[in-house]
Amino acid sequence: MGRTEDLITRLASEGAARQGTATPHFALPLLLATILCIGATALVLEDAFPTYHLRGWMPMVVKWGFSVSLLLLAALALHVLGRPGRPSGWAVASLLLPFAYAAFFVLPALLFGDLPFPGEQWERCLIAMGIMSPIGFGSAVMATRWLAPTDTSRAGLAAGFFGGAMAMTAYAPFCPGEGGLYFVSFYLVPILTMAGIGWLLGPRLLRW
């Protein structure tokens, strides 16, 4: 067994003892960044849930159902990836579940929807995603550095998903945009872009 395998085995055996101190340090940056972005968005923007009177809660069910589930699953994947010697493939694969959920609603809307595109205030949506996604990504990197990820590309990918999902979660209540094409263009594409950036930067930002 080589030095790398020895190190992974030792870290895995010590994981239970270090869990009590590592987990709070891991969770704190994620929690603070989420509170910061949600609070700042609520202070800056007005008229929450603008589509409620026209279409009820369904648009928010779709948006938050996707973003909140991706946010939680990305945090879980980061925590699992940060514990060396433990199976992590299932946690990374679970990141596909929110996309399957979204596809159930978005694909019919793409095929049969007649909502105007791009709609109102789409620029504000891109700006919000562009500002808050890096904040969420940075907090995820800080959190994960308290752990010991060995697959830094996958950890960077999960951090990127966390950042994008956090930005969407914070902004979605103030978004008047609707429709499948809007969802794909101004939410999915920015989130996937952030995840791709995380995949590329993970080996540099998370090496130890």
Structural features, described:
The protein has one domain. The mean pLDDT is about 85. The chain is built from eight helices and no strands. The chain is globular and about 60 Å long. It is about 75% helix and about 0% strand.
Short description:
The chain has helices at residues 3-44, 52-55, 58-81, 89-93, 97-112, 122-144, 152-171, 180-205.
Determine the mean pLDDT: 87
Shape: globular
What gap, in angstroms, lies between the N and C termini? 20 Å
Q: Characterize the biggest β-sheet.
A: none
Task: Provide keyphrases for this structure.
208 residues, mainly alpha, NrsF, transmembrane helix
What's the structural blueprint in terms of helices and strands?
Blueprint: H1 3-44, H2 52-55, H3 58-81, H4 89-93, H5 97-112, H6 122-144, H7 152-171, H8 180-205
Helix pairs in contact: 1-6, 1-7, 3-5, 3-7, 5-8, 6-7, 6-8, 7-8
Pfam families: NrsF
Keywords: Membrane, Transmembrane, Transmembrane helix
InterPro entries: NrsF
